[in-house]
Amino acid sequence: MTDQRHRDKRNVDVWLTGTEDPDWLVESTDEGAQKMASQETTARLLEQEGLAVADDRLLDEDIAPDDELMIINMGPQHPSTHGVLRINIELEGEIIRRSKPIIGYLHTGMEKTGEELTWLQGPTNVTRMDYLAPLHNELVFSLAVEQLLGIDLPPRAVAIRVLMTELNRVSSHLVALATNGMDIGAISMMLYGFRDRERILAFFEKTTGLRMNHNYIRPGGVAADLPPDWQEDIEFILEKVPPRILEYEDLLKANPIWMGRTKDVGVITLEECLAYSVTGPTLRAAGSDWDLRKAFPYSGIENYHFEVPVGEHGDVYDRYRVRIEEIWQSLSIVKQAAESMPEGDYKTDDRKIAPPPRARIDESMEALIHHFKIYTEGFQVPEGEAYVAIESPRGELGAYLVSDGGSRPLRMHMRTPSFANLQALPVMMADSMIADTVATIASLDPVLGDVDR
Amino acid sequence: MAHPTNPPGFLLANLDKVRHWAQTRSMFTVTFGLACCAIEMMATGAGHYDLARFGMEVFRASPRQADLMIVAGRVSQKMAPVLRQVYDQMPEPKWVISMGACASTGGMFNNYALVQGVDQIVPVDIYVPGCPPGPQSLMHGILTLHDKIMSGEIAH
Predict the structure, then answer these.
(1) Which of A196, A312, A337, A342 qualifies as a FRET site for A440, CA 20 to 30 Å off?
(2) Distance CA A274, CA A283 (A)
(3) Residues of chain A contacting residue B69, judged by C-beta atoms under 8 Å apart
(4) What pLDDT is recorded for position A174?
(5) Overall average pLDDT of the A139-158 stretch
(6) Residue A113 at interface with chain B, using a CB cutoff of 8 Å
(7) Do A78 and B61 lie within an 8 Å CB cutoff?
(8) Coil/strand/helix, residue B149
(9) How close A400 gets to chain B, by Cα (Å)?
């Protein structure tokens, strides 16, 4: 073979095994460099790729020379990457040596758009970030705005927020279980998970008007009161969902394939979790009981009794166990919140922040003016900055808001858990089998809208 | 069934009907989930809404095996060439459903990052409104596509 840039009849570049890498294989393309950096990288590059940590077990001496490694590309259009994640995987045989997540395929510019929207319109924007837990996004944004405003909410508004976000945690974990099952081949788990999520979504739709992206929790309270017969709906959920969770455990734990494909797969230690600022079920599965609902309680969640489930091995199975246990704990919080739901108003009575009741608009000129001003100009927020973090189903979800005293944020930044957790993916996948890739990604439960924003 | 795109003559006209019937009754969808709408698309395919009633439950990971692309979610500038490549890899005849406000018009995100409507990249047959569209909306969009193919309104 004299000319390595061999062209066949279809005029397509082909590469024959055994020949040297031709130039066109190494060169950058319009999609970025398709080849990973060579092994002789500088320490700086290692740091950027998330490979240089103190006790780095990725950089073993026995790593194969370049010519025994194969690089495959996964995504961005792949059914098991939970959206549009792209990963370059460096393989030695069937063993993953290194991997490089490539993100940005769903970058929506939400933080920039957030600067164009008033404080009241903000939840509309952030709810579309983590679309599996939209209510948590709205809650953290609203809490940050309320911290800047320095207002207190009626107890009913706070309790409704807890009720709704904990239900949302259940529905989000159900999808995590469903997709995790689907990726490993347990299709029935996928069908079951989505089926029970529908029960919770039906309640969301009844209360907020939408199945997802609710824009329900807003600065100053919530958008609407619970529907008249909400207690029956909650009872229905609490009656129907728990037997199903037991059913899933029977289905999965009695299944040797599920156990074999999740136990000791995608392991991450507690030290590595802390080094990569991993939070949420992934951190708790590694053995830490760090939960922001306990560490920095918000919305009066310290008044409810619940426990923080903790795993010990930090593998896919423990993350699945932690999620199952969290579903139980969240259902318990929902039950407590429904039983102790206080009467009263569902939003603050500060007419400069929350719109007046509909009936008042017909009889009061001032109410009409307030309503008009809130929905056109928006309300002013005192100058300052605020960072509030809550425990979303994926980990620490934080909102950092800067106000210059106007009716729009000067800067909005969200600390999203999926983004931080995703940097731990190369650590989990290092030295594991390629077939475990999808199980590991699914157990991390990344939402790419949350990563890219 | 006298439609301008149907060829004249008894044999060809009826052959065309058979072709349209075959095209609509086993439509394979390429998985192109992008954002929120993808979750609703999955919910539509799952047990509760059961897209299998319309012979639509098969989601293919490979575009080579698919003839319908449901663009479910917001298309960023970085994703646009990928989307076009996947579309080009699909064999003819092929159809595109633009699901949701973001895919149809850019939705609420009129900024630097998003393609303001996927019809700037690929030809779209059906637009499904909503943010995200509920499963019923998506099913209506799919059935509308079936109707249009059956009647010969969308001819390939």
Answers:
(1) A196
(2) 8
(3) none
(4) 92
(5) 92
(6) yes
(7) yes
(8) helix
(9) 20
For residue A221, list its beta bridge partners.
Answer: A218, A347
Residues 6+ apart with CB under 8 A from A351: A366, A367, A370
The answer to whether residue B7 sits within a structural domain is no
Shortest CA gap B86–chain A (Å) = 8
Q: Indicate yes or no: CB of B79 within 8 angstroms of CB of A84.
A: yes
pLDDT in tens, A21-46: 555 555 555 555 555 555 444 665 56
Write down all domains in chain A, each with its CATH number in brackets. Answer: 23-102 (no CATH), 110-150+153-347+382-452 (1.10.645.10)
The pTM of this model reads 0.84
Q: What is the CATH number of the domain that holds B145?
A: 3.40.50.12280
Q: Which residues pair with A387 in a beta bridge?
A: A400
Interface test with B, best of A12, A80, A117, A128 (most B CBs within 10 A): A128
Q: Are A220 and A146 in contact (CB under 8 A)?
A: yes
- Residue B85 belongs to domain spanning: 28-150
Listing DSSP states for A264-331 in one string gives T-S---HHHHHHTT--THHHHHTT----HHHHS--TTGGGS-------SS-SHHHHHHHHHHHHHHHH
Contact across the interface for A213 and B132, Cβ inside 8 Å: yes
Decide if A135 contacts A217 (C-beta within 8 A).
Answer: yes
Q: Does A78 touch chain B (CB under 8 A)?
A: yes
| B16: in domain | no
Which of B38, B46, B112 comes nearest A109 by C-beta?
Answer: B112
Q: What is the pLDDT of residue A22?
A: 53
Q: Tell me what pLDDT residue A40 has.
A: 47
Judged on CB neighbours under 10 Å (0-12, 13-18, 19+), A229 is exposed
Residues A387-426 pLDDT 10s: 999 999 999 999 999 999 889 999 999 999 999 999 888 8
* ipTM value: 0.85
Whether A63 shows a pLDDT value over 60: the answer reads no
SS (H, E, C) A40-76: CCCHHHHHHCCCCCCCCCCCCCCCCCHHHCEEEEECC
Instruction: Tell me which residues of chain A, numbers 289 to 328, contact chain B at a CB-CB cutoff of 8 Å.
Output: none
Give the per-residue pLDDT at A413: 92
Whether the pLDDT of residue A109 is over 50: the answer is: yes
- Between CA A315 and CA A320 the distance in angstroms is 9
Q: How many domains in chain B?
A: 1
Higher-pLDDT residue of B124, B59: B124
